[in-house]
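Usage example:
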Amino acid sequence: SQQGEEDPQALSIQEGENATMNCSYKTSINNLQWYRQNSGRGLVHLILIRSNEREKHSGRLRVTLDTSKKSSSLLITASRAADTASYFCATDAPGNQFYFGTGTSLTVIP
Amino acid sequence: DTAVSQTPKYLVTQMGNDKSIKCEQNLGHDTMYWYKQDSKKFLKIMFSYNNKELIINETVPNRFSPKSPDKAHLNLHINSLELGDSAVYFCASSPMRGTSYEQYFGPGTRLTVT
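Running the assembly step on the lines above writes:
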């Protein structure tokens, strides 16, 4: 199935450090999105990157896409305690829908 | 104003019962979704509606029946609840159908079947 898989499953860093999480997928995509989920909440959209794009920025977030390796990465710079959450990538699939991975659980220690 | 709302937030019920979860979006979006998130946080799409029409129906038991009375509402009815139905159910919406649009998620409904 066309499912994004995030890596690592869990990541713990000190406040102020950068956090990098990766997403790998199996078949060609048109779009890839990253979402954040705080504990007990719904998912919140962060960034959409299209297959013809290699990099996008939004504030402290930087997303890269390497279609040759079928992978994407999300970099959060100068992390804050409020960035503690689970981060999901969503890759599109036949049927014009998204498949989500199981997420990376990020803990930022103050 | 809440963009995508779900009721109830928590639902505890016994096996064999029938229950419903309601979802409403006030964003004027055409497309709505139901997702199931299991205890390992895996998020799986169940259904998608576009302008009240069912467009995605993943392999879910037919005990689950979505209903969209209008494009702002998508409800989920579950018959004969089983232990394995325990999960968090999320409603989401997007402006239009397709993966180039971001999805807006509701706060989730935690269903516990005992």
